[in-house]
Amino acid sequence: MPSIHASVSHKLTQADALKRIKKAITEAKNQNPEKVRELHESWEGYVGNFSGTAMGHLVAASVAVNPGEVTVDGKLPLLATPFKGKIEAAIQDLLTRLLA
């Protein structure tokens, strides 16, 4: 499975950044139930771990909400390898908009 990584700096408090990230995840699950299935989400402080299926493929990722930076690391299905750069850019763009 190919790895992905995205990281964005922010000027929010760590708690505010976490609140925005959690809200975006909830909205994504509610708006895309046909694409995101069986999403398992667990948080330990400011680190969230996720696994499930997206568009029929197994995915796993972690989100670390640090002071001044949010980082996403994950594993993609092998079939998504050609789209790795686009997926990382989309995550980076989403994080930038969420944390602005």
Main traits of this protein?
alpha+beta; 41% strand; 100 residues
Molecular structure report:
The chain has 100 residues and is an alpha+beta fold. It has one domain: TATA-Binding Protein (2-Layer Sandwich). The chain starts with a strand and ends with a helix. Strands 1-5-4-3-2 form a 5-stranded antiparallel β-sheet, with helices on one face. It is globular and about 35 Å long. It has helices at 14-31, 84-98; strands at 3-9, 36-44, 47-54, 57-66, 69-75.
CATH architecture: 2-Layer Sandwich
Strand content: 35-45%
Low-confidence stretches: none
Could you name the CATH class? Alpha Beta
Which series of helices and strands comes N to C? EHEEEEH
Q: Which shape, going by the Cα principal axes?
A: globular
* Major beta-sheet overview: 5 strands, antiparallel
* CATH topology title: TATA-Binding Protein
Separation of the first and last Cα atoms? 31 Å
Q: Give the radius of gyration.
A: 13 Å
What's the number of structural domains?
A: 1
Q: Give the strand tally.
A: 5
Walk across the major sheet and give the strand order.
1-5-4-3-2
Report mean pLDDT, rounded to a whole number.
90
Helix content: 25-40%
Number of helices: 2
Structural class: alpha+beta
